[in-house]
Amino acid sequence: MIQAEKKKRVIDIKNLDMKLKIENDFYNVINEVSLYVEEGEMVALVGESGCGKSMTAKAAIGLQPENSVLTGRIETDNENLLEYSEKEWEKRRGKETAMIFQEPMTALNPLIHIGKQIAENARTHGADKNEAKQRALEMMKMVGLPDVERLYRNFPCQLSGGMRQRAMIAMALINNPELLIADEPTTALDVTIQAQIMELLKEMNEKTGTAVLLISHDLGVVRNMCSRLYVMYAGHIVESGSIDEVFENPMHPYTRGLILSVPDVTKREQELVSIPGTVPSLAERKQEGCPFYDRCERRLEVCQKKACEMQDVNGHMIACHLYTGTQKEV
């Protein structure tokens, strides 16, 4: 029997912890997070706002806050990126790993032409002025921007939200990175443009082979885009697996709540399902027990004092005492 060739992990995060120092106190933002993305695949990181998704993404590209303290490993090519200096990050960022941010108007410089900003990423990594401009024009065409010679000389304010986001994608892909991190790339766009941008990301993934880590709270989009997903709550990964496994058999109460909260046109007569409560602030997060304890409708006695480690249950990974044999519910 011929074994399938093992794919390279373009990023492999292992037991990543992030604490923020605010005044004289440290607050846990990310707790023992482990996830990986293989070459060419699209993987989702999902959860409500405030769960730590963007902080995880920023750490993966060396843009974590200055007041943060990180431990663990972020590996690629057998190197721990947490040991990189800022100079080493500058060589890697935008070349091997690129990122699309949530709001293009804050990510783009309003005083510099769009084309020049896209070309600048190529120049930073070795292209001369003419080559950079040519690559920028080609990439602008590839992401579906019209009349690229004219748009090259336009400022960000002269483009629509969808066009600005396409420009951001062109900027991220101009150096053909191994990994593209897309952090809520359609947050500020209307529904029609959201669908176009997501379809573009999928098309670019297939055309260029760039792996994508898609950060989102939209489970409908994730289901159609990705092959695997990680579910994050209050800085913890609580469940992970293939899209089909998790959507067809969600096991963690938080994952179930997220999936049931998605509006369904076939259930118009039924009330919308919502998860009670909100994600706790950094100051409110407990240092012991399950992070979802206060909002969980199936919590056990053990959940209040002891966090559950990730375990393999029916083909995907889950951190929940419901599957450890403890049955005494509160």
Structure characterization notes:
By secondary structure, the protein is α/β, with parallel strands linked by helices. It contains eleven helices and twelve strands. It has helices at residues 53-60, 86-92, 104-107, 114-124, 129-142, 148-151, 161-173, 191-208, 219-225, 243-248, 253-260; strands at 9-22, 25-38, 42-46, 68-76, 79-80, 97-100, 179-183, 211-216, 228-233, 236-242, 311-313, 316-318. The strands form two sheets. It has an eight-stranded mixed β-sheet with strand order 6-7-8-3-9-10-12-11, sandwiched between helices. Strand 11 and strand 12 form a beta hairpin. The longest helix has 18 residues, at 191-208. The model has no long low-confidence stretch (mean pLDDT 90).
Q: Top keywords for this entry?
A:
330 residues, 8-stranded mixed sheet, 11 helices, single chain, alpha/beta
Question: How does the SSE layout of this entry go?
Answer:
Layout: E1 9-22, E2 25-38, E3 42-46, H1 53-60, E4 68-76, E5 79-80, H2 86-92, E6 97-100, H3 104-107, H4 114-124, H5 129-142, H6 148-151, H7 161-173, E7 179-183, H8 191-208, E8 211-216, H9 219-225, E9 228-233, E10 236-242, H10 243-248, H11 253-260, E11 311-313, E12 316-318
Helix pairs in contact: 4-5, 4-7, 5-7, 7-8
